[in-house]
Design brief:
The protein is an alpha+beta fold. It folds into two domains: about 140 residues, 3-Layer(aba) Sandwich (Rossmann fold), CATH 3.40.50; about 150 residues, Tumour Suppressor Smad4. The chain contains six helices and 16 strands. The longest helix has 25 residues.
């Protein structure tokens, strides 16, 4: 490859489970003792770690041949500034691709599967050996990509948070969430376990489990559900789906706005009634959250930007 190319490639990696254990227990021996003491197979952690390191060596060799690149751990994503012309490579599981994409502004993202025998890799179109071809195609602007719709939570104080899979709005701990919900002209106060807002990509994940569980409950009450089948949305669908988890109707709260669609014309408005511990986080990353406490108004809408996943 031409090492004089101007565009920078940013490689996003993550710690393996073995590295996380060693960081927790300080030594490999202590980590092994802990896992085996619980009756688990430590060798599986070692095999996964070895496979990831081998994949990382292959990818780095390709990038070194290319010339201009930078490698970062996913922990730096919230504060990392991507260049407009950057090409981004995520080496890891699907979750790493989603977590990386929400920080991008239209830069092409290549997902690389470090161990195809272990990971299905819905978002991981390439194996390490094939990344060189993918990079060459992106550099020539001849690549095929899928657009991925993202969700956006915008607070009245100017803070925003994006999601590739889903947003969670609710309590930080296992208590009831209290808020006012508004969709179009409908408005009510609710008490629940929080809300899930799903994108098209995320409609095959958390949202699917919520709807599947609801259908099974309905079936248990001997109500017919055989003609009702869950249908996920397309990745580029210009709408979101929301579901309220475990809504509780009472004298002070209602439970009629519990499932529906969000679009550019019909955003979802939420006003927190929680004195503390209210949060909004995205894509399962609880550490990267917005506070959602009393008086805070959140507008949940389709994001103005889309992810670009190289396929």
């Amino acid at each position: 490859m031409d090492g004089s190319a101007d565009r920078k490639v940013v490689l996003v990696t993550r710690q393996t489970r073995l590295e996380e254990l060693v960081a927790r227990f300080h030594t490999l021996a202590q980590a092994k003792f802990y896992v085996e003491h619980l009756g688990a197979d430590f060798s599986d952690y070692e095999r996964e770690h070895a496979a990831y390191l081998q994949a990382k060596r292959l990818v780095l060799a390709i990038l070194q041949a290319y010339g201009r690149y930078q490698a970062i751990d996913r922990g730096f994503l919230p504060n990392f500034v991507f260049g407009n012309a950057d090409i981004v490579v995520a080496l890891g599981q699907d979750g790493l691709v989603a977590n990386t994409m929400k920080y991008l502004h239209g830069q092409p993202l290549i997902g690389v599967n470090p161990e195809p025998a272990r990971y299905d890799g819905i978002l991981l179109a390439y194996e390490p050996e094939g990344m060189a071809k993918a990079l060459a195609e992106v550099l020539r602007d001849r690549f095929v990509a899928k657009e991925v719709t993202m969700a956006k939570a915008a607070l009245t104080n100017g803070q925003t948070l994006y999601a590739v899979n889903d947003l969670f709005i609710g309590p930080k701990t296992h208590i009831s969430a209290r808020y006012e919900i508004q969709l179009g002209n409908r408005k009510e106060k609710q008490s629940s376990s929080g809300l899930i807002v799903s994108t098209g990509l995320g409609s095959t994940a958390w949202m699917k489990s919520i709807v599947t569980g609801a259908l099974q409950i309905v079936s248990a009450y001997n109500l017919k559900t055989d003609k009702v089948a869950y249908q996920p949305m397309a990745w580029d669908a210009n709408q979101l789906t929301f579901a309220v988890r475990e809504p509780f109707p009472s004298k002070a709260t209602a439970a009629s706005i519990v499932f529906g669609s969000i679009s550019a014309q019909h955003p979802l408005r939420l006003t927190s009634l929680m004195p503390e511990n209210g949060v909004i986080f995205s894509d399962g990353i609880e550490a990267d959250y917005l506070e959602f406490n009393s008086g805070t108004l959140a507008s949940i809408e389709v994001a103005e930007r889309k992810g670009i996943l190289v396929t």
